[in-house]
Design a protein that fits this description.
The protein has 237 residues and is α/β, with parallel strands linked by helices. The protein has 2 domains: 120 residues, Rossmann fold (3-Layer(aba) Sandwich); 91 residues, putative n-type atp pyrophosphatase, domain 2 (Alpha-Beta Complex). The protein is globular. The protein starts with a strand and ends with a strand.
Length: 237
């Protein structure tokens, strides 16, 4: 069955795609990523478009880019629907996500896909996140934190490699996979890539939280003051 993979560029996406490729139930014909049109970066993660392109090239899967400018749910849903309808015309029947246990997010995704007659697939659903992060590391994936939520983690956690030491040092209240939005990652090597992406870290930047009035539904909105981002760039040397 033809499928689109909803690709964030991080560890959960990478592990979910690995599982899909191993099971061989779905033929992933596109990666689907939402980017901010103003900054040319992956939404929420803050990763540059050129690094996303490098991932797609290393994966050997073409990209579908959903561009948003205003950042509202309405804009996102309209742009996403336009891209998905075009993919459905090409025979795509399923959309695959790396979500693990957020019930409201799963329901939101499923309801939106019903509008365009597509079905959602969640390869990692309800799996133990402590086991998932250990599996991710043991498989040889390489990833780095590109964004952390200051409600949970401070500046020192952004720009760090995800390895056994990282997991060991995580505070007890933090989900090992950052499933509650504690941190986001960029994956640059692993068994799904035909080559590693050479990157280097540059400055760390703090961005205060910006929420559109109509979108103030996040339970952590009142506690999160902002996010730390680590600038990642390709290392040609």
């Amino acid at each position: 069955m033809k499928a689109i993979f909803c690709w964030s560029g991080g560890k959960d996406s990478s592990l979910a795609l690995y599982n899909v490729q191993q099971e061989k139930t779905y033929d992933v014909v596109y990666l689907l990523t939402t980017l901010n049109e103003n900054h040319k970066r992956i939404s929420m993660h803050g990763v540059r478009e050129e690094l996303l392109d490098a991932q797609a090239n290393a994966l050997g899967i073409p990209l579908l880019k959903v561009w948003v400018k205003e950042g509202t749910n309405q804009e996102y849903e309209q742009q996403m629907e336009r891209v998905l309808l075009k993919a459905r015309e090409e025979g795509v029947t399923h959309v695959i996500f790396g979500d693990i246990f957020l019930e409201d997010l799963r329901l939101y995704r499923e309801e939106n896909l019903k509008k365009v007659d597509l079905k959602a697939v969640f390869p990692l659903w309800k799996q133990n996140t402590s086991e998932l992060i250990r599996e991710f590391i043991s498989l040889g994936f390489k990833t780095i934190t590109c964004c952390v939520n200051d409600q949970y983690l401070d500046e020192g956690w952004v720009g760090r490699e995800i390895n056994d030491q990282f997991v060991k040092e995580l505070p007890a209240a933090i989900d090992p996979c950052g499933e509650n939005g504690e941190y986001h990652t960029f994956c640059y090597a692993g068994p799904i890539f035909n080559k590693s992406i050479k990157i280097k870290t540059e400055e760390k930047v703090y961005r205060p939280l910006e929420i559109k009035t109509e979108d103030c539904t996040l339970p952590s909105a009142a506690l999160t003051k902002g996010f730390w981002f680590c600038e990642l760039v390709e290392n040609d040397q």
